[in-house]
Amino acid sequence: MTASTATRDRILDAALQLFGEHGFRGTSVAAIERAAGLTPGAGGLYHHFRTKEAVLTEALERHVGRLGALRDIRRLFAGVQDLEVELTLIARYVLAELEAEHDLVQVLVLESRQRPDLVGQTVERLVASSVTEFAAWLVQDWGAPAEQARATAALALASLFSHRLISPTVLSTEEFVTSWVATFGSALSAGSRSPL
Amino acid sequence: MTASTATRDRILDAALQLFGEHGFRGTSVAAIERAAGLTPGAGGLYHHFRTKEAVLTEALERHVGRLGALRDIRRLFAGVQDLEVELTLIARYVLAELEAEHDLVQVLVLESRQRPDLVGQTVERLVASSVTEFAAWLVQDWGAPAEQARATAALALASLFSHRLISPTVLSTEEFVTSWVATFGSALSAGSRSPL
Amino acid sequence: MTASTATRDRILDAALQLFGEHGFRGTSVAAIERAAGLTPGAGGLYHHFRTKEAVLTEALERHVGRLGALRDIRRLFAGVQDLEVELTLIARYVLAELEAEHDLVQVLVLESRQRPDLVGQTVERLVASSVTEFAAWLVQDWGAPAEQARATAALALASLFSHRLISPTVLSTEEFVTSWVATFGSALSAGSRSPL
Amino acid sequence: MTASTATRDRILDAALQLFGEHGFRGTSVAAIERAAGLTPGAGGLYHHFRTKEAVLTEALERHVGRLGALRDIRRLFAGVQDLEVELTLIARYVLAELEAEHDLVQVLVLESRQRPDLVGQTVERLVASSVTEFAAWLVQDWGAPAEQARATAALALASLFSHRLISPTVLSTEEFVTSWVATFGSALSAGSRSPL
DNA sequence: AATGAATGAGCTTTCATTCAT
DNA sequence: GATGAATGAAAGCTCATTCAT
Question: HSE (CB half, 13 Å, CA atoms) of C84?
Answer without folding.
Answer: 6
